[in-house]
Specification:
- The structure is a single chain.
- By secondary structure, the protein is an alpha/beta fold.
- 41% of the residues lie in helices and 20% in strands.
- The protein has one domain: Vaccinia Virus protein VP39 (Rossmann fold).
- The protein has an 8-stranded mixed sheet with strand order 1-4-3-2-5-6-8-7, sandwiched between helices.
- Helix 4 links the parallel strand 2 and strand 3.
Length: 266
């Protein structure tokens, strides 16, 4: 980390867990911003689920984004709600990136189950995090420790194991999920499943092509850049158009490159 990042970390992050050995690929944090079509698409799916199940966007709910990274999701959520979204993250580089939110940032491993966080939150978001853990059920149980009774846990994971590529290897994905597998872990952790759906049906072919493109790269930063960033502005606009068409014509596709689920702690 550079001196500015270290300073930002010291000023804006409360250190709960002492971890010095976790580091994700910096390129992902730099590319994953609110202008990216996939970040916008993921948020669009989240908003539809919240509205579908009557979860208030106007109440002052207190949530935490586990594995918040550069806080892009926290910023998106706070723009459309009155919620306060805290963030828990282990990567100091990501925590040192600037973000304007109403919540607090913690360098915190939820597996530590710090007593100060017991049943603290009305809701938890866990987007593209669960696939990094060898024991998803145990990680979901750790997340549940932080959630109030009646609170919601909202999960997003990559889907379709046949799409696994060098990108998943660099990103540290243990698994690309199916609905059946995700349901099993959610229920095993003691949650009640409220909704689960695929999204990104029209991305199946692009991700299949990505398998071959990223196989030519050894450097992890390059793999993430080539695998996550559209090849030019025209391609990015085309992918945004695909997003809009699918969202309008196929709101609950039979298959997709991601799965989003919402579960409740009873």
């Amino acid at each position: 980390m550079n001196n500015n990042a270290e300073k930002a970390l010291a000023e804006h992050v409360k250190i709960i867990s002492l971890r010095d050995n976790f580091h994700f690929v910096n390129a992902w944090y730099e590319l994953a911003n609110e202008r990216h079509f996939w970040i916008q698409w993921r948020m669009q799916v989240l908003k539809k689920i919240l509205l579908r199940h009557g979860i208030s966007l106007t109440d002052k709910l207190h949530g935490v984004d586990i594995g918040c990274g550069n806080s892009v999701l926290r910023c998106q959520i706070e723009k459309i709600t009155n919620w306060i979204m805290d963030g828990a993250e282990l990567d100091k580089f990501a925590l040192g990136m600037p973000a304007q939110t109403r919540g607090q940032l913690f360098l915190y491993d939820i597996r530590d189950r710090n007593d100060a966080f017991f049943e603290k939150y009305d809701l938890i978001t866990m987007f593209d995090i669960l696939e990094h853990y060898h024991d998803p059920t145990a990680f979901l149980e750790d997340a549940k420790f932080h959630l109030k009774k009646g609170g919601y846990c909202i999960i997003n994971v990559p889907a379709i194991e046949l799409l696994r590529s060098r990108y998943d290897e660099v990103a540290g994905h243990e698994l690309r999920y199916s609905q059946k597998i995700l349901k099993k872990h959610i229920k095993s952790a003691g949650f009640e499943l409220i909704d689960i759906r695929y999204w990104g049906f029209s991305l199946i072919l692009p991700l299949w092509i990505r398998r071959f493109i990223v196989s030519f790269y050894e450097d992890g930063e390059e793999v993430i850049k080539k695998g996550f960033s559209p090849p030019g502005q025209a391609a990015h606009l085309a992918l945004k158009l695909m997003k809009n068409i699918e969202s309008s014509l196929l709101p609950r596709p039979p298959l997709g490159t991601s799965i989003m689920a919402i579960a409740q702690k009873l």
